[in-house]
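TASK: fixed-backbone design
INPUT:
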């Protein structure tokens, strides 16, 4: 069994100084694929070198050829000393996104760099490591991870440990809840003083309450102990890496990392 699961923090430029004390690998949330396609960069200090590049596709509607974009990515990695990338692609897999993943997977493998992709792009490159979200509202997180390991292998499976807070109406036929901010979650806990339980299947806390206006509710949420449970589960399943989004856990990261 693995002694531990290695953590990678995805961090926006404004928070880079805050995370230095944790001495964890950093993936820089500073890049986006835009029209062309071209690589667009947020303001990031010139002095920043090393770590990974995070590329998101917010607002990208597709079109163009993958080759020139991939060359832009490789040039930026060389200029910044990045040794890997995380393609945080969401939504429909419009072209050339699948082709970009395939091309980068081959180029990165030649350089010995890892490429991480969201689950929807896991089959676009046999060389990419696939992010499996811990956010489940039904079934079993263990089963979800087991299916991923069987499909991609443990070495390509990466836990994307997400901090969830959602309020579900009961019954909830779609399995979709209303996201809660930290303040909204705290307010519900404070106002309702509910009995809070831990679901070993979901690796998350939950409670129920009744509203005069909207009936029965089910609230599912994470904190430092539940996120640690998710990381322990990954370790038990021989999953060697996990990704945490620093903006989600900035107030509890120290507790998550505590031995």
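OUTPUT:
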């Amino acid at each position: 069994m693995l002694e531990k699961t290695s953590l990678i923090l995805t961090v926006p430029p404004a928070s880079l100084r805050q995370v230095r004390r944790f001495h964890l690998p950093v993936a820089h949330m500073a890049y986006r694929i835009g029209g062309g396609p071209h690589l667009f960069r947020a303001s990031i200090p010139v002095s920043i070198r090393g770590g990974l590049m995070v590329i998101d596709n917010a607002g990208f509607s597709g079109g163009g050829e993958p080759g020139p974009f991939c060359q832009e990515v490789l040039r930026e990695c060389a200029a910044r000393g990045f040794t890997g990338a995380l393609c945080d692609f969401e939504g429909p897999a419009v072209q050339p996104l699948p082709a970009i993943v395939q091309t980068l997977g081959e180029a990165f493998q030649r350089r010995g760099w890892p490429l991480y992709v969201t689950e929807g792009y896991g089959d676009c490159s046999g060389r990419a490591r696939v992010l499996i979200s811990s956010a489940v509202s039904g079934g079993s997180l263990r089963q979800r991870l087991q299916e991923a390991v069987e499909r991609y292998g443990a070495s390509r499976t990466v836990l994307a440990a997400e901090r969830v807070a959602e309020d579900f109406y009961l019954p909830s036929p779609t399995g979709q809840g209303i996201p809660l901010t930290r303040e909204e979650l705290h307010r519900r806990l404070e106002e309702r003083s509910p009995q809070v339980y831990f679901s070993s299947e979901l690796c998350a806390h939950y409670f129920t309450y009744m509203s005069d206006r909207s009936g029965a509710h089910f609230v599912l949420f994470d904190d430092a102990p539940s996120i640690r449970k998710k990381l322990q589960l990954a370790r038990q399943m021989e999953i060697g890496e996990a990704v945490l989004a620093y903006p989600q856990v900035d107030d509890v990261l120290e507790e998550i990392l505590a031995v």
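COMMENT: The mean pLDDT is 95.
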